[in-house]
Amino acid sequence: MMTFKPKKIPIRVGNRYIAILNENNAKELDVRTAERIILTVKSKEITAIVDITEKNELKDNEIGLFAETWDKLKITTKDKIRVKPAQKPKTDKYIKAKLEGKPLTAKEIDEIVEDIVNDDLSDIEMTYFVAGCFARKLSDRETVNLTKSIVKHGGQLKFKDKIVMDKHCIGGVPGNRTTMIVVPIITALGYRMPKTSSRAITSPSGTADTMEVLANVTNEASKLKKIAMKVGGFITWGGGVDLAAADDKLIRVRYPLKLDPQGMLLASIMAKKFSVSSNHVLIDIPIGPQGKVKDKKDAAKLKKRFFTIGKMLGMRMKVIITSADQPVGNGIGPVLEAIDVIKVLKNEPDAPKDLRDKAIKLVTELLYLTKKYSFKYQARKTAIKTLESGKAWEQFQKIIKAQGKRRMPKVGEYKFVVRSGRSGKVTMIKNKLIATIARSAGAPKDPGAGVYINKKLGEKVRKGEALFTVYAENKTRIGYVRNLEYKKAYTIK
After folding, report:
1. Domain residues of the chain, as ranges?
2. How far is 329 from 276, CA to CA, in rounded Å?
3. In the structure, what pLDDT confidence band is assigned to residue 248 with cuts at 50, 70 and 90?
4. Quick one: DSSP state of residue 162?
5. Which class is domain 165-241+254-403?
6. What is the mean pLDDT of the chain?
7. What's the rounded Cα separation, in Å, for the pair 273 and 279?
8. CB burial class (10 A; 0-12, 13-18, 19+) of residue 290?
9. Which DSSP string do the residues of 236-258 spell out, in sequence order?
């Protein structure tokens, strides 16, 4: 054990405990980068990850502490810190076993998840766990055990209702803000639908980003429970409430290499449903060359796994296959998408028909899943009536008020219209390029930025007619878009 003088590094690194040593002190303690040390100040003790500086920023017997570590220990510059090497977590051997292709038991998975939540695993160790699950796959049983552990070491909202509904789209389609239409219709009909949604990672907007331009999406679990009991449901950011903390950390290490082990992806989705007591769940799998799932064969395999895992978790499941051939709705970007949603809920004549139709389809499937309708057309009729009567719009306003209403920002004042170079028919829209254009325009960070789709697949277009319009909150962003191959976003024949 050695004693050190603390030096504060006023930078936050994301709820991880990191301590920096110089090379001499690291050798004396016999520790290397990414290994662990135990820090003790008075009666407080934590385990931190080691980083080593090769330069002379730290003197001998001086230790650098990032803001989280400093705050956790509640120390001052006058304190002395006792430091000793820590043993590696025993879960390292479980991670190695997975890399070798060995199945993990429920206990082993649970201990890994517990270490992740407690920040006892470094990013490197978590990355190896993800890599093991990617290369060696997770069985259905391992996936269920991972789902249950993520929920166990996060939190859970419990409802006594026999029917608690939820939906999830696996993504890959710009726009597609059906959740913000489905939840108001379902809850207007008296069902419970507590919906946690994600923010954008590589897309121009996630449901949480779009909802955030209208309402607060970072309410605490206790408040969310009250909201759901009062108005039937909510639409909130999953990362803003501690319901699946381990999953959020695993997503962070999966992101750089875009690693999406199927079992881990399934556990991530199902944990969010399980954590809010959902028992009637609809999964939307968009397929197509531009989607995450490319063909019907892969979709069928994924569908089967969702059913199996849902059944093992005690859920009634419905999985539908939809198209990923083009954006859903007209707006792509937080404010533009919110405008689409409001138009549908208010039954305005220029509301995007494809967004309305898809939302009605999803509500129909959820209602039919309750087994309270003898025929699917009856469920569809109920969904349409609830929307056209204005009850869904009234319900949406109640949800917004309960979560904390916000003044919606304006659409970006700078715009750039992309026009067709020829007459013909729209035969292809490149989703990924449209998404890239919207992000280059500033979405989702600039909520008023994005893309408005003027022409959809199959529509006729004349030379010089607008295909899509780019909106930005500053001129610089429009310049970024002009540097892209934006003319390749559409194919006209």
Report:
1. 2-85, 91-136, 165-241+254-403, 414-492
2. 28
3. confident
4. S
5. alpha beta
6. 94
7. 8
8. buried
9. EEGGGTTTSHHHHHHHHHHTTTT
Please state, in angstroms and rounded to a whole number, the distance separating the CA atoms of residues 394 and 150: 35
Residue of 235, 236, 237, 229 whose CA lies nearest to 190:
229
Q: Of 2.40.40.20, 2.60.40.10, 2.40.30.10, 2.60.120.10, which CATH number belongs to 2-85?
A: 2.40.40.20
- Nearest CA among 387, 395, 338 for reference residue 358: 387
Report pLDDT for 256.
78
Which helix (H) or strand (E) segment is 454 a member of?
A: none
Q: What are the residue numbers of the active site? A: 260
Q: If residue 317 lies in a helix (H) or strand (E), which one and from where to where?
A: strand 316-323
Residue-by-residue DSSP string for 70-139:
HHHHT--TT--EEEEE-PPPTHHHHHHHHHTTPPPPHHHHHHHHHHHHTT-S-HHHHHHHHHHHHHH---
H helix or E strand, kind and range, residue 320: strand 316-323
228 contacts: CB under 8 Å, gap ≥ 6: 157, 159, 192, 194, 234
pLDDT in tens, 39-89: 999 889 999 999 999 877 899 999 999 999 999 999 998 999 999 999 888
CATH code of the domain occupying 414-492:
3.90.1170.30
| Nearest partner of 131 among 96, 164, 102, 158, judged by Cα | 96
Q: Report the distance separating Cα 146 and Cα 247, nearest Å.
A: 10
DSSP one-letter code for 487: G
pLDDT 10s digits, 81-123: 999 999 888 999 999 999 999 999 999 999 999 999 888 888 8
Tokens of 405: 């209403």
Could you tell me the pTM of the whole model?
0.88
Sign of the dihedral defined by the CA atoms of residues 383, 167, 354, 375, in that order: negative
What pLDDT is stored for residue 169 in this prediction?
Answer: 95
Is the pLDDT at 247 greater than 90, yes or no?
A: no
Distances (CA, A) of 368 to 104, 390, 488: 37, 22, 41
> Looking at residue 226, what is its pLDDT?
96
List, for residues 126-185, the tens digit of each pLDDT value: 999 999 999 999 999 999 999 999 999 988 899 999 999 999 999 889 999 999 999 999
**418-448 pLDDT, tens digit each:** 999 999 999 999 999 999 999 999 999 999 9
